[in-house]
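Reposting from the mailing list since nobody answered there.

I have sequence plus structure tokens for a pair of proteins and want to know whether others read the tokens the same way I do. The first protein:
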Amino acid sequence: MTETVHSDFKSYCRQFKRENSPRGDFVRDILVDPSWPGVYSPDRTREYLTGVGASEGAMVAFEILLAGFHAQRRGGMSPVDRARVAGRASQARKTPEEQRAAMRRARLSAAVNTVADSVPELSPEQIGRLRAALGMEREARQ
């Protein structure tokens, strides 16, 4: 079962390898990393990423991919995809610059929410510091 989930996760990730984003960068890195964990386990993967000194961006990208993977397995949408769909209606009335800024905020918010949901050990203070570091200090989690 674990091996099947592992190959399913890598297959899910492959669809983003051409994406020009932190998620795409992360996927390209793991696809060529010979020491990438051979057995899928979110905890083992987090330990591996911490052990190799992965950046905060890489950790967030992993959590976004993980949330999307689990949402897809349940037949739903990932938080990033939900944010993208929800933002399309209001974007029609915005300039391209406003649209890019709104998408960035939605992605950051979804990423922080995914991390907060996936890592229950994080305190509200740590989540607040993450939001502040990403320039989201005024946004409250819904």
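The second protein, same order (residues first, tokens after):
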Amino acid sequence: MKTEVESIVSRLRTLINEAKQSGSADADSRNIADFAAASFSVAQIPPAIAEYDVWRNHVGQLNPRHAGVHNRVIQFVKKVHRRLLSWYTRPLNHTFLALAAVVQRVFSSVEDLWRAGLEVDRRLDQLDGRLRAHTKNISEINLFLLARTAELEDSVAEMKRVSGTAMFSPIKAGRVEALHSANSQNGRPAEGLWVKNAVQGETTGQAWPGWSSTSERILDHAWALRKSNDVPIGSRILDLGCAESILAIELASAGYSVVGLDVRPYPLKHPSFEFMMGDLLTADIEVNSFDVVVALSTLERLAFGWHGDQNNLTKLELYVAKLYDILRPEGHLLITLPFGASTVTGNRRILGLHEIKRLFTGFETISAEYGLRLDEYTWISPVDAALAGNRAPQPVTLGAGAVAMLHLMKSAESNAR
């Protein structure tokens, strides 16, 4: 019995090692089949235990004898011997019973392992089927993507062919160069019109222009239009520094009577728009003549000789005083200024919070909003004044990293500053 149990355990260990080394579901199935068909099959264990029980019951069994005194004496002697021997064989009996119980548990465990192996084999078959289905789907998706990639490559090639011929052939190289300017002040007027777009492009000799940067105009232009919604239709509006924008034409188209003022020419026309060429300080503008004055990113340049005027910092206050004078009582000033750490760059003055308060002491503040430049392409608004006020100028262009958008009003009691 002990030899058979050891043989079974040894065979199980061999099968387990073979399964570990194989690593395939087919090999596992063969090992399970080999185990079931082995000469010492688990089915042999119950008969072996039954045979053990039979022989155990024969221990100390008396042989049948015929009637007679001598036979009774023999049987008595045997009974005495069996009783005496039972004291010595009792531990052996318990040992064999414990061994039988262990063997029975081993048999149950082996049977459970065998059934578990069959279940694992079944699940491996299911997983193999799923894997084959997924592999097929991935192959189909790969073929679809390859087809779409080929179509896109053909489309890109066609776009390049068209862009290099018919689509852009009317645009001459000189015209493209004239229209291109990352900062319009550094460029040349195209057809007499300077337009500083919020999204600024650049060309490198190719047909399609690239996106170079986004200016504060992405904020202040939309802000001015939003603020104009509260202005009554027919109001008289001055657009100071209008030459770089189409805001004056947009306001005129919206039903306002608009006057544009700039030191540069402005070729656009509208029935409700009048253009004046000149400087604000010397222009012939009557006092109390405008309901609204709009100045987007203009005031900071006027005192720096940028548009033909003299380089005099004190002229800022003169310009603000002139704006105050030409506004009617309770007239509104919509003005945007470069905002941040106070400094002077090559073409503008970046104003801090204290300077702004000093410049506009005669005005009542209706609202003050601040925008912040996150990167070359992104501006956000509104942000906290303290956050915007600490922003340093841009490292390369020296442009402002923040913008202040102020809605101010001239008091009703004052006619002059």
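Reply #1 (J.P.):
I read it the same way you do. DSSP finds eleven helices and twelve strands in the chain.
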